[in-house]
Amino acid sequence: MNGGRAEAGSGLVWAIDLGGTNTKLGIVAAGGEVIGEESFPTRPERSGGSWVEEVGAALRAIGGREGVDEGSVCAVGIGAPGPLSAKEGVLTNPVPNLPKWRGFAICAALSERLGKPAYLDNDANVAALSEQWLGVAKGSENVVVLTLGTGIGGGVIAEGRLLHGFSGNAGELGHISIDHDGPECACGSRGCIELYASAGATVERYRRKLEEAGREAEGEITAEGVFEAAEAGDELAKATFAEVGYCLGAAVGSIVHAFNPEMVVVAGGMAEAARYFLGMIRSVVKERTYSDLQVGLRIEVSPLGDRMGLLGAARLAFMAAGGE
Amino acid sequence: MNGGRAEAGSGLVWAIDLGGTNTKLGIVAAGGEVIGEESFPTRPERSGGSWVEEVGAALRAIGGREGVDEGSVCAVGIGAPGPLSAKEGVLTNPVPNLPKWRGFAICAALSERLGKPAYLDNDANVAALSEQWLGVAKGSENVVVLTLGTGIGGGVIAEGRLLHGFSGNAGELGHISIDHDGPECACGSRGCIELYASAGATVERYRRKLEEAGREAEGEITAEGVFEAAEAGDELAKATFAEVGYCLGAAVGSIVHAFNPEMVVVAGGMAEAARYFLGMIRSVVKERTYSDLQVGLRIEVSPLGDRMGLLGAARLAFMAAGGE
After folding, report:
1. Which of A92, A142, A189 shows the shortest C-beta gap to B253?
2. Which residue of A66, A294, B145, B318 is 20 to 30 Å from B291, comparing CA positions?
3. pLDDT at A217
């Protein structure tokens, strides 16, 4: 039994990383130690209430397994797809990931089910918190995190504070446009970086290259498959990532001029393949920004892998609850 | 003599708006009242020290004229072209406006000459301070100011605080790119909004339209001339501003996704002509941003005219000196 460990710190939190496909959750100590964790399919076709029930059962099962005294848990932190209202704890518009949960008061529901205060922020914002807490941005006060996956999200820490903006939606960096006459985006704009460098855009680029080269794809192409092809030495896959890196570099150039960060962190599912595009981002940004903005600037890959969201949700809960 | 007025408030400041062409300066009271002001040509070909002498003489002349007791002046505020180091009070890289003053420790020099603490920030940042203090952004905590002139500058107030970033150069919004394959910019990037919507770009657009229409320009074209032509009903001038507005709208779309402001203020010399492009900015932004980011968003023209920089420099001094 490791109840002693659980009681030793300055409290514990329940942390939830709500994704369109999977929900990861766990119990996290104030130093960032994950006491126990698990995950289950989110099944967004069901009601939010049913999901909350499963969350509650899972958190208590982990607690039982690890001998955690529920009294030492001070809060619940949730990272979820935006747009959302962090202030009101509501998923205002979680399309396309969770269209049925539009308007779901997730904090109130979790708080009622679990008996602890619950705090919500969007997944890219909690990613920024986790990078600053335990990741590559540790100690940096001016951090931009780009989460590259199905979509592209952004989390910005400016002078030590997470940037929320007027309605809580600052840092929607997937919708920085790199071409005002580019393809149309779901947000209404054109040429958003999300259309050039998300997982789907990467797959589409690779598919076109295969076609042009007269090669046939083996089965369904995924971003992971493009990465594996690059790892196996496929030049078309490498060229695909180089193009992704070029486009990301152009967007990061605008982002650097906007926020003047010390650290830009590339995270999310696509970060796995970063060795094939990080160099390109760095060289484009070096070429495309004022030298004053390059002073001390670093562009790095997240070291936290798929625990980033869980740890960020934990950090959110600790900060909100004043737990440290 | 109005010395009584000068002593009535909670102190006065000396405010300096340093431009590449003219220097405006004055004595400002804590409520924003300008006690006295004047301006002189900056003459950037001379030394910084010679300019400081003229500043000192001019401020003392205003003080003498208005009967101001120098003991009630608590600080000096300066707005100047960036990039600069606000923290160190140094003009690090004021190219192309003041190339000879690169590295000039302007705060130390002014402070020594005037015997008061001096505070520096870039012209677009002090513009944001003045808009929030006395302008159209009064009471807003999330404000973006775009200064449209020879170049395009940006000042960002996020959750009540002026955003500086890691090296003090956040908000370089003239270098938000709207086309990653667009024309080359002095910053090293391509397609920066400054290349599409500054005063010079406006003149260039109008010149091309005249050429295409087989019309001859009468004398040298200036942005003010394009404005006057629009006022006189010239459809080519109006179409020029509509294009400027379209490009600005595309950039503001990215800016809104980045910062989620409540208020975007269009300021600077070009703002005079805003009636010919503000509607276009608004409609492009409405079309090109997520609805969550449009909640409460306003896009307005600065009401402060050419006193904006002076008032912003005053505000900077009052804030830094804790004068209010």
Report:
1. A189
2. B145
3. 82
How far is B165 from chain A, CA to nearest CA, in Å?
5
Contacts of A163 in chain B (CB under 8 A): 158-159, 259
Tell me how close the Cα of B9 comes to any Cα of chain A, in angstroms.
Answer: 33
Q: What is the 3-state secondary structure of chain A?
A: CCHHHHHHCCCEEEEEEECCCEEEEEEEECCCCEEEEEEEECCCCCCHHHHHHHHHHHHHHHHHHHCCCHHHEEEEEEEECCCCECCCCEECCCCCCCHHHCCECHHHHHHHHHCCCEEEEEHHHHHHHHHHHHCCCCCCCCEEEEEECCCEEEEEEECCEECCCCCCCCCCHHHCECECCCCECCCCCECECHHHHCHHHHHHHHHHHHHHCCCCCCCCCCHHHHHHHHHCCCHHHHHHHHHHHHHHHHHHHHHHHHHCCCEEEEECHHHHHHHHCHHHHHHHHHHCCCHHHHCCCEEEECCCHHHHHHHHHHHHHHHHCCCC
Residue B157 near chain A (CB below 8 Å): no
Ordered by where they begin, the domains of chain B are 3-128+307-320 (3.30.420.40), 136-303 (3.30.420.40)
Indicate the residue of B83, B173, B288 with minimum beta-carbon distance to A290: B83
How far does the CA of residue B56 sit from the closest CA of chain A (Å)?
Answer: 30
pLDDT of residue B10: 63
Instruction: Name the pLDDT band for B258 (thresholds 50, 70, 90).
Output: very high
Chain A from 242 to 261: CB within 8 A of any B CB = 246-247, 250, 253-255, 257-261
Identify the pLDDT of residue A22.
Answer: 95
pLDDT in tens, A19-68: 989 999 999 999 999 999 999 999 999 999 999 999 999 999 999 999 99
Which residues of chain A neighbour B296 with C-beta distances below 8 Å?
166-167
Q: What pTM was estimated for this model as a whole? A: 0.93
Distance from CA of B291 to the nearest CA of A (A): 8
**Taking all residues of chain A, what is their mean pLDDT, rounded to a whole number?**
94
